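Hey team,

Filing this mostly as a record. A colleague (T.K.) asked me to run one chain through the structure pipeline before their review meeting, and I want the input and output archived in the tracker in case anyone asks later how it was produced. No errors, nothing strange. Just documentation.

Input sequence:
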Amino acid sequence: MRFQIPGLLTSEELAQITQALSKAEFIDGKLTAGWHAKKVKNNEQLQGESAQDLRNIVEKALLRHPLFQAGARPRQVHSILFSRYQSGMSYGRHTDNAFMGGNQLNRADLSFTLFLNRPEDYEGGALITEGADHEQGYKLAANTAFIYPSSTLHRVEEVTSGQRLVAVGWVQSLIKDPAEREILFDLDTARRSLFSKSGKGDEFDLISKSLANLLRKWAD
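Output structure:
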């Protein structure tokens, strides 16, 4: 399941991050890439103590959002990076590693890209995800997060002018199986819709019971 979260950050949080990035020192993105990704990764990443403060802002914003909670069922948001693509930079076709985090490994069930600047600020630079018979491009509005399965083949097309700023990261979910996550998401969406129309009735209680019991059954 793939989904978008517009307006993830508050305006103050977005301003804090973009202002910090405008003054920050970036390093070669290959330093955090796996051995095979190094061959296709051409971008820059934030380094320094300020990175952790900015990671905390993004993580808290994700965890407080009800759509993220329902769609991702997060156990851990981890390995957040702030990436900059200048003119001529790109990230070739790859799949994210199954585990990340250095000494404390976390499984990567879901990947996310949080777009930090406007799409009109740069040419090119779309995130392309591949399916069995199609490709889909994403170049979303500033402050929009895109969440998708980490098993997806994807790439970032070359930026031909301007500058692309994003935060990327990964999620270890309580629900390892993506099909089970989607079932839980659908049930949660249905019960919220029912509650908004009819309040707490017998049908709402039965759906809530099934949702809770499936969470107990499937949680990793």
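Quick notes for T.K.: The chain has two domains: 3-173, 178-218. The CA atoms of residues 140 and 213 lie 36 Å apart.
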